[in-house]
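Final report, Chapter 2: Outcomes

The project's central promise was a pipeline that accepts a single protein chain and returns its three-dimensional structure in a standardized token representation, suitable for archiving and comparison. That pipeline is now operational. To close this chapter, we reproduce one record exactly as it appears in the project archive, with the input sequence first and the structure output second.
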Amino acid sequence: MGVTSTWVAVVIALAVVIAVAIVIGVFWNRLGASEISPVGWLALGFGTVATLALGCGLMALMFISNRRGYDDYDHHDQD
């Protein structure tokens, strides 16, 4: 992969991020004033903590699996 293709990939990625940010901004402004109830905040907090815990747990399992050699390719001859 050359330097030119790397720059093209970076420019495309930045353009996508900027486009998504603009779309989010437009939808956020059209949403108007909305309030979240205390139960909604509780659900939001629980969802955030659960998602972070799941992500950290899966990453930990990936690192443990790699360090213990579970991901190594096994070269057994099969007759």
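Archive annotation: The two ends are 41 Å apart (CA to CA).
This record, like all others produced under the grant, will remain available to the consortium after the project formally closes.
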